[in-house]
Design brief:
This protein is 46% helix and 15% strand. It is globular, with a radius of gyration of 17 Å. Helix 2 links the parallel strand 2 and strand 3. The chain is built from eight helices and seven strands. The structure holds nicotinamide-adenine-dinucleotide (NAD). Nicotinamide-adenine-dinucleotide (NAD) binds next to helix 1 and helix 7.
Length: 243
């Protein structure tokens, strides 16, 4: 396992939920943190305080990642303030539960722009400096929905399945350059996203309870430390799906 001291990590959607736990866990592991948030600057500033309390540098950057120019600006601002990104956790996402008959092309495009296109754009933006330095960690936060369909809808499942394709292609093409790319596929982790979906119940989970954000962040930190695991999907799903 490689030490993470002084590595710079960017976690998208880090004001709350899984992203916040990843940011705090990476700071405890020794990273400086770029805390991206969409709207909740108040919560992002709380996350910043937690990072600083771990003795690490931190920065909050606000951006709507469904908008292409905002993704580029987020990475530029982050690199200007803290330096080149070593670890990118593509965590930000939306889940709009929608009946099949109501999934219009607009609904589909919006889910893909936020969940998939944003991860592609952020990855492309950090890769030049990772490749120049021959070190990088890309983590894509997908979902059990990519594997079994899930409780949101085909638009969400498709957006998450696309992340596996990104991870596989980046992993295979960058393996010789010190850059790994992996997927973390959670279900059902107790966050605002799960609490707001009535179909998400612990009865779906073989272990009989929701997972915690800390259990998910543990895996993300492991993937950031490990230079030999690449192109893999690590499931954090209480046994819902085995791979
Ligand atoms: P959450 O709703 O608490 O967090 C989602 C984050 O994404 C928030 O910080 C939000 O601000 C950000 N976001 C949403 N739209 C955005 C936009 N347009 N631009 C920038 N940021 C935006 O939920 P969570 O459970 O912590 O979700 C984190 C990730 O985990 C998501 O990608 C989600 O799909 C995935 N996931 C969660 C579960 C679960 O059980 N909680 C299961 C599978 C996958």
């Amino acid at each position: 396992m490689e030490p993470l001291s002084d590595r710079i990590a960017l976690v998208t959607g880090a004001s709350r939920g899984i992203g916040r736990a990843c940011a705090e866990a990476l700071a405890l592991a020794g990273c400086d943190l770029v805390i991206h948030c969409h709207q909740r600057l108040d919560l992002a500033n709380e996350a910043l305080q937690a990072v600083q309390a771990s003795g690490r540098r931190g920065l909050v950057v606000q951006a709507d990642l469904a908008i292409e120019s905002e993704v580029g600006r987020m990475v530029e601002q982050a690199e200007e303030a803290l330096g080149p990104i070593d670890i990118l956790v593509n965590n930000a996402g939306v889940a709009h539960p929608t009946p099949i008959e109501s999934i219009t092309p607009e609904v589909f495009d919006r889910e893909l722009a936020t969940n998939l296109r944003s991860a592609f754009l952020a990855t492309q933006a950090v890769l030049p400096s990772m490749r120049a330095r021959q070190w990088g960690r890309l983590v894509f936060v997908s979902s059990v929905a990519a594997q079994v369909g899930g409780v949101v809808g085909p638009h969400y499942a498709a957006s998450k399945a696309g992340l596996h394709g990104l991870a596989h292609a980046y992993a295979s093409q960058l393996a010789r350059e010190g850059i790994t790319a992996n997927v973390v596929a959670p279900a059902l982790i107790e966050t605002d996203m799960v609490r707001s979906n009535p179909k998400a119940t612990p009865a779906l989970i073989p272990v009989g309870r929701f997972g915690t954000v800390e259990e998910t962040a543990d895996v993300v930190v492991m993937l950031a430390r490990n230079g030999y695991v690449t192109g893999q999907t690590v499931n954090v799903n209480g046994g819902w799906y085995f791979s």
